[in-house]
Design brief:
It is a single chain. The protein is an alpha/beta fold and 502 residues long. It has three domains: 113 residues, ATPase, nucleotide binding domain (Nucleotidyltransferase, domain 5); 164 residues, Nucleotidyltransferase, domain 5 (2-Layer Sandwich), CATH 3.30.420.150; 188 residues, Hypothetical protein af1432 (Orthogonal Bundle). 49% of the residues lie in helices and 16% in strands. It contains 18 helices and 14 strands. The strands form three sheets. Strands 8-7-6-9-11-10 form a six-stranded mixed sheet, sandwiched between helices. A five-stranded mixed sheet has the order 3-2-1-4-5, sandwiched between helices. 45% of the residues are buried.
Length: 502
């Protein structure tokens, strides 16, 4: 997450896409409303191939990845953190006990790494592919076949409407169906059918939604298209006829080592058969007749999203507002809680070493969403809210950002549960604890839900304490608030936190 505010103003920005097959880096700047590419780097790392059945990443795969990221890090040196986004996808989502690897990756790059959900990956892919396309054929189906997952998105113009991420990728599919290198007609037919089985749950919805144009992105689709081009079977798009000819070409080769076609990159050859089977399965499942290709994908989507944040067009704020409306949160009460929480932050941020802009953003979002769990039940609504935030699709959010926001909502009332901190990154546990104290105080002081309530408090923070001072006689005139503060002190004490008030 970003540590300071910024503006785009034409300076370079960078995106790093840690895919399951390849790592990509894009350095660009915005010039006259257009994206100007300064530099591109790509390396085939085959991260998914190093993930075992226990979802542990092999030492060899880690070494390949870190060597690549060290090279990327050299190029990114000097770029401020607010101008770089690093996104991990399917393999890093699946990886177990990955904290040490992620820390090493961040050190190699010199920048924080976000792990994004499959749906967020789909949104960013769609943005990267469709940005600047215009509206002559506004309904678009975008397909991105990666190393570990396939993203399928239907949108109208630049707005995605249906988004799915399926655990179906060229590396994983190759491991499952062509691990010994042999390619037979029966084996390829089985791999193609297996891909369609994985897509069966979305077939009807996507066909009914319809599209004007299908667009394929990233290495698998572009790699297949290049082979078709070299054979003279395709020009600007992939037809079903060209796809079937390519399937026959691969089957006739008989072995992965024999896939030496013109147009096929050497680093793409080991996973080409699996990727082609997935592509054929997608064509079958959605009855696609032809598909255009795009050289843009997730990394471009990351850049556009980053530029939006730098220019105060942060999709995350829009997502929070939409979720608050969806779950019927009281906007006036949320605004009052937010105002008091930010007032409290202003009095404590320096002493507690809380990054002012980032903490204000998180507290503001938590205040807007702290009551969404009421849609389920009043009892334990803080737990219900946490569950919604941890498991919902929040556009623009990384998985870590969702966890941080969910923890704040969980901690806004009731006992100060240690469980809320368990899977947070270690560097975030103390800041979230302190921000939760401020949110709890704001919620407590607005329990009456009285409109235009003015709260004259002064805070003095200690390392593990918070002193709250009100004007003389104020607590005597608000005995319920005083009782709430006494109970709050009891809730905080088992966590080693001291609340004093007068």
């Amino acid at each position: 997450m970003r540590r300071r505010a910024a503006t785009a103003n034409g300076e370079p920005v960078a995106a790093v896409d840690l895919g399951s097959n390849s790592f990509h880096m894009l350095v660009a700047r915005e010039s006259a409303g257009q994206l100007q590419i300064i530099d591109r780097l790509r390396e085939a790392v085959r991260l998914a191939a190093g993930l075992d059945q226990d979802r542990l990443l092999s030492a060899e795969a880690q070494a390949r990845a870190l060597a690549c990221l060290t090279r990327f890090g050299q190029r990114l040196r000097g770029l401020p953190s607010d101008r770089v986004r690093v996104a991990g996808t399917n393999t890093l989502r699946r990886m177990r006990d990955g904290a040490a690897f992620i820390a090493a990756a961040e050190k190699a790059l010199g920048h924080e790494l976000e792990i994004i959900s499959g749906v967020e990956e789909a949104r960013l892919v769609y943005s990267g592919v469709t940005h600047g396309m215009g509206r002559p054929r506004p309904r678009r189906l975008v397909i991105d076949i990666g190393g570990g997952s396939t993203e399928l998105i239907i949108g109208r113009a630049d707005e995605p409407r249906l988004m799915e991420s399926v655990a179906l990728g060229c590396v994983v599919h190759t491991q499952r169906h062509f691990a010994d290198g042999l390619i037979t007609r029966a084996g390829f037919r089985q791999a193609r059918l297996a891909a369609r089985v994985e897509l069966e749950f979305l077939e009807r919805r996507y066909r009914e939604a319809g599209w004007d144009v299908a667009v394929g992105a990233s290495g698998t689709v572009r790699g297949a298209w290049r082979v078709m081009m070299a054979q003279g079977w395709a020009e600007d798009r992939i037809s079903r006829e060209a796809l079937e000819k390519t399937v026959n070409l691969v089957v006739a080769a008989g072995h992965v080592s024999a896939l030496t076609f013109e147009g096929l990159r050497e680093d793409r050859r080991p996973v080409f058969a699996g990727g082609l089977a997935v592509l054929a399965g997608v064509f079958d499942a959605l009855e696609i007749k032809e598909m255009e290709t795009s050289e843009h994908a997730l990394r471009e989507g990351l850049v556009y999203d980053l530029l939006g944040r730098l220019e105060n067009r942060d999709v995350r704020g829009t997502a929070v507002e939409a979720m608050a409306r969806r779950y019927g949160a009281d906007p006036l009460h949320a605004k009052a809680v937010q105002r008091s929480a930010l007032k409290a932050l202003g009095q404590t941020a320096a002493a507690w070493n809380l990054p002012r802009v980032l903490s204000a953003t998180l507290l503001g979002w938590a205040a807007q969403l702290h009551e969404i769990g009421l849609v389920i039940a009043h009892d334990n609504h803080h737990r219900h809210g946490e569950y919604i935030l941890r498991n919902g699709d929040l556009r623009g959010f990384s998985l870590t950002e969702q966890k941080l926001l969910a923890a704040l909502v969980r901690l806004h009332r009731g006992k100060f549960a240690a469980a809320a901190f368990e899977d947070l990154p270690s560097e975030w546990r103390e800041p979230i604890q302190r921000m939760a104290l401020l949110l709890r105080l704001a919620v407590l002081l607005h329990r009456s839900r009285a409109p235009r309530l003015q709260l004259p408090f002064t805070l003095t923070p200690g390392r593990k304490s918070l002193d709250v001072v009100f004007p003389d006689g104020w607590l005597a005139r608000h005995p319920l608030t005083e009782a709430d503060l006494a109970q709050e002190a009891e809730y905080l004490a088992p966590a080693g936190l001291r609340l004093r008030y007068r």
